[in-house]
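Weekly puzzle thread! Below is a chain. First person to post its structure in token form gets bragging rights.
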Amino acid sequence: MEPVIEYDDEVLTACAGGVELFRYVHRPSTPAFEGPKPYLHPVRTLAGDVVTAFRPHDHRWHKGVQMTATDVSGENFWGGVTYVRDQGYVALPNVGTMRHEEFAVDGARVGEVLSWFTEAGERWITERRAFAVRDVRADSWTLEFATSLTNLRAEPLVFGSPTTNGRELAGYTGFFWRGPRSFTGGEVLAAGGGAGQELMGSCAAWLAFVGQHDEVDRSSTLVFLDHPENPGTHWFVRSTPFAAVNPSFAFHDTVGLEPGGTLNLRYRLVVGDGAWSREQIESCVEEHPW
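Winning reply:
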């Protein structure tokens, strides 16, 4: 099945086999406090089941699948409150915006240029993003995602997370997925035999989440693959109190980016129909070599 990409001034869609696989909202009407940025939602399996959440009541800045950052030299491009050492979460005037500039679409591959602006209106980062729909099969499809972040400032940028600012096991930043409410309590599996929320903050080449849907007697499996050249990936993962996965590039340690320097990151997300076993997941990973 060949995917079809269409877009207008606000939304890009990808369809295959008569199913809208995702909507990529590149010019969202997001409240400023929630950190306006492009996001993918809804994301669907080939069976048509939605595997993302949008603006949940507990974290209204969680929107489907996003690429973002919680702490960039004190600026918050994630949205919402900021974790401050010895104070906890605080609402600060530091919530930035990631603005879409342009697309270049070639078949099922999309290139995009974005600019990251601080709340004060300073342009700190140029991002060149590329994503594509590939390997559309009878029971799964794959989102390939790559980004290059270039520092436009005359001084280094420092990427961090709540954990680098003192909050234990909250190192989220970067490529982030928020699952549907019905996925709460879902099964977490990872490379090397790991399982469960005990994987929080650990390293693994891949991590999978299996969740159940409301209303229909079906489950879905999402497999997140980390590129081996990504720097310092540690997994942020929760099954309770909500479903979320994030291969964080600044979980335990900050990452510096010199003026004019570029940070490159690559990921794959396989969206599968049904509750896959570890053996099925491992077979899928073997079929997606870097």
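Puzzle host: Confirmed. Bonus trivia for everyone else. Helices lie at 278-286.
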